[in-house]
Amino acid sequence: MKDFEFVVGIAAGVLTSISMLPQLIKVIREQDVSTISPVMICVLICGVGLWCWYGAMKGELPIMLSNGFSVILNATLLFCYFRFKRNG
């Protein structure tokens, strides 16, 4: 049963970590962030950052890695928001 739990945990981590990847790709291709909420991205970064911290406290590398990737991905999306934001 432990192996199954591990696989489920890894699958959940991978799927949630890559969930914003299609949005980031779209933003980079179109350079349009008019439908992106920077507040939502900031809240998400805080949430996955706390998951990283939790993973570190528990010594759980899969939690730290999957959420660390999410922090990087969402921080990149936030950077793109400010880079491509239309003034006006």
Automatic annotation (TrEMBL):
Recorded GO terms, molecular function? Answer: sugar transmembrane transporter activity
Which InterPro entries does this UniProt record tie to the protein?
SemiSWEET (IPR047662), SWEET_rpt (IPR004316)
Question: Is ATP-binding given among the entry's keywords?
Answer: no
- One family from Pfam that matches here is MtN3_slv
Q: Which GO terms describe its cellular component?
A: membrane
Please indicate which superkingdom the organism of origin belongs to.
Bacteria
The answer to whether UniProt assigns keyword Transport to this entry is no
What are the entry keywords?
Membrane, Transmembrane, Transmembrane helix
Q: What is this protein called?
A: MtN3 and saliva related transmembrane protein
Q: Which residues cross the membrane?
A: 6-25, 37-57, 63-84
